[in-house]
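Anyone else keep sequences and structure tokens together like this?

Example one:
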Amino acid sequence: MEGPPLGGPLFFPFVAQTDDEAIMPAIKIFSGGAMRPLMTAATGATIEIEFRLTSVLKKAIGAGEWCDLAVLPRRELDDLIEKGMIASGSTVDLARSAIGLAVRAGAPKPDIGSVNALRGALLQARSFAYSDGPSGAYTAALLEKLGIAEQMGPKIRLTSRPVAELIASGEAEIGVQQIVALLPV
């Protein structure tokens, strides 16, 4: 590992100040995407933020890449703590992230207003994409709970790419992912 284990004290030291401008060291952050505008507005520090899919960030940290702060879902943080890659007791829950269902621009919006309608929409879809990240784990469990996991199997396009890219390109008819990952595409 290049730097200290994640979880040390988080502080923003001012090194020097000239003309009301603070000169600060760079802060390297791994984040799944939703926090960029908030962090940029909240500090004058140079912030190096790497926005990648959660699964990719988890692999990077597991491989020893160093950062000052990792913004990841609880399940991934707990796994990295268990592996000794993030210091125990150093985490805090920051936010919740909702998932959404996406279709290609111009396609009819499926009825997902009830459990039965959602089940029907998923079964009617020719192909269905979801990520291998936290929303994907939720989606896989949801398919089981709906009793359609086996039927959906041949239609599933599991991806490390943004799901909306698969929808936009026609590689999948519908897809599910965190809304913050769907909206930019």
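And example two:
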Amino acid sequence: MVIAWIVLGLGLLYFELHHLALYALFGAIGAFAAGVTAIVFPDAIVVQLLVAVVVTLLGVVAVRPFARAAIQKNRPGGHVAHGVHGGIVGQTAFTLDEVGTVQQVGHVRLSGERWLAVSGSQQVIPARTEVTVMAVTGTTLVVWPTHELFDHPPGISPLLLESTLLDASQLEAAQLEAAHDEGRPDPEDNGSST
């Protein structure tokens, strides 16, 4: 059982390195604590589970808020995002392929990640164009060519931006179509063939 706890702890550490939310870190610490408990009490699996849960919860509740605040306080520059979409709107990205309307969903690269995107200007945006994120609808970014933003100061009126937001059913259909075009399985498909 010791090996299982160590493998779980290492897996959680690997996950934490990619997300840096400090939840998996305390899960890993809890798993390692359960591993130590497994060395002392090899047959007490319930005790091992309790140690893992208690250590994880204590870390998340008592230590994580202070650790997170210290990390953000000492962060040199950079953009700190508050909320799910709060840090994305206003950021610049680059189109990876043509980005059009809901019927022609494209992709952008933002902070090293690939995102689905639609054009807020209702015009097709060519590949390798710098764009600014104007809104987020689900997991799809509404983008506008950055050069056009500067051509029309002082910016986009809220009414124009509102008119570019997508209906959720249109967006979901476009995302499914984009996934199909990339060869990914349809999330609605349960694997059975009819």
